[in-house]
């Protein structure tokens, strides 16, 4: 059996309403054109059967669909011994200095206002942590290219809003009501697959509210067999009346190419997020603070529950909203705010679409009995913070120095790579979850820290008698010591099962 993988890098977009879409071409802001003309729409899309052609519909919509390209500057190492014991020796002899190279990304997007606001995927315009975004270019179907600025981006929903830097009137489209989409409805996707330029494909809605099993608050898509490929990211999925009902986002594929299973973010999910990004507002979401497991067939059989209903609480953060409300590991969450929890309507989705501070009733099954609790939702952390929380930390693992994984000054001066403390790391080290400090992740074997016996899993509590509660605190003390000409830094170290002790670590 061939291994099937998800290929992301396709398309995501946004929504702003629930009315019929309008496409404006060279007319004053707010003017409407032919695709809202009932006579034209009846000719383009007959009431019965498939349309004779998608050509008239495409001609009305395609001017508002754009290609998006970015230029990024990525720092890379030219050390051939990176990750080996010889890496530090190579660096000390003048080699291995970081170099930069230029990178590009390509995707799709669509204009949502006459003054040039554009919707696309976050991953199209947001480089990874190694890269710096230098410029964004938007190219219209007629080949005209404009510089654009990033107005707002949201990693959780994979949406971003750009603004074209030009004083002119642009053709645009608007969002429709994706909740009205039915399995079997015709749809049209327009985008920039493989950088080829404007490409139109058609298909039908294969499923609504498809859960792909990838987790997260927005694992809830329109599935379509319209051909979607790399570069379609951020492009629109239209219904037969020209409404944007989805934003192409991903495909399911064993080969990396389209096999007729594509996913689009529903407009009803994207629209409110796009409006907030366009207005420059921070996206705030509710947060419970639990790790969940869907109730699959085996779980259901072992607990005597219906299949695909509810989610099992695996762990609860002690100081989280769920922990304060009395939710426990082993509980099964069946309802949130009066809505049933299912594969199509997960706890993450329900909670993320509520505001922090909201009082929410949550129904549970505990030891076979129904329990009701009220939870005051917290604010959902950023995706980077959630990833950090999800990371496990094995203090016994032997990991080589990896360039760029923590602050470079600390690595250079102390020979240490350090991590901010999290409840997960604290639990793995067997220390209180509210302990303050930073954790040593890796020690350069050629450093004074290694000679003094410091090792992975040690917790730095203070530096030169100043509390260290973050990587920034440690960096500040390293900089103070360097500016004062000191040759060493006094660290107070907490090691598992041992009392704290002071270590003078020579600076390099």
From TrEMBL:
<feature type="binding site">
    <location>
        <begin position="231"/>
        <end position="233"/>
    </location>
    <ligand>
        <name>substrate</name>
    </ligand>
</feature>
<dbReference type="InterPro" id="IPR009003">
    <property type="entry name" value="Peptidase_S1_PA"/>
</dbReference>
<dbReference type="InterPro" id="IPR001478">
    <property type="entry name" value="PDZ"/>
</dbReference>
<keyword id="KW-0645">Protease</keyword>
<dbReference type="InterPro" id="IPR036034">
    <property type="entry name" value="PDZ_sf"/>
</dbReference>
<dbReference type="Pfam" id="PF13180">
    <property type="entry name" value="PDZ_2"/>
</dbReference>
<keyword id="KW-0378">Hydrolase</keyword>
<keyword id="KW-0574">Periplasm</keyword>
<feature type="active site" description="Charge relay system">
    <location>
        <position position="158"/>
    </location>
</feature>
<feature type="domain" description="PDZ">
    <location>
        <begin position="406"/>
        <end position="471"/>
    </location>
</feature>
<keyword id="KW-0677">Repeat</keyword>
<protein>
    <recommendedName>
        <fullName>Probable periplasmic serine endoprotease DegP-like</fullName>
        <ecNumber>3.4.21.107</ecNumber>
    </recommendedName>
</protein>
<dbReference type="Pfam" id="PF13365">
    <property type="entry name" value="Trypsin_2"/>
</dbReference>
<keyword id="KW-0732">Signal</keyword>
<dbReference type="GO" id="GO:0006508">
    <property type="term" value="P:proteolysis"/>
</dbReference>
<feature type="region of interest" description="Disordered">
    <location>
        <begin position="383"/>
        <end position="403"/>
    </location>
</feature>
<feature type="binding site">
    <location>
        <position position="158"/>
    </location>
    <ligand>
        <name>substrate</name>
    </ligand>
</feature>
<feature type="binding site">
    <location>
        <position position="123"/>
    </location>
    <ligand>
        <name>substrate</name>
    </ligand>
</feature>
<dbReference type="GO" id="GO:0004252">
    <property type="term" value="F:serine-type endopeptidase activity"/>
</dbReference>
<keyword id="KW-0346">Stress response</keyword>
<keyword id="KW-0720">Serine protease</keyword>
<feature type="domain" description="PDZ">
    <location>
        <begin position="289"/>
        <end position="350"/>
    </location>
</feature>
<dbReference type="Pfam" id="PF00595">
    <property type="entry name" value="PDZ"/>
</dbReference>
<dbReference type="InterPro" id="IPR001940">
    <property type="entry name" value="Peptidase_S1C"/>
</dbReference>
<comment type="similarity">
    <text>Belongs to the peptidase S1C family.</text>
</comment>
<feature type="active site" description="Charge relay system">
    <location>
        <position position="233"/>
    </location>
</feature>
<dbReference type="InterPro" id="IPR011782">
    <property type="entry name" value="Pept_S1C_Do"/>
</dbReference>
<feature type="active site" description="Charge relay system">
    <location>
        <position position="123"/>
    </location>
</feature>
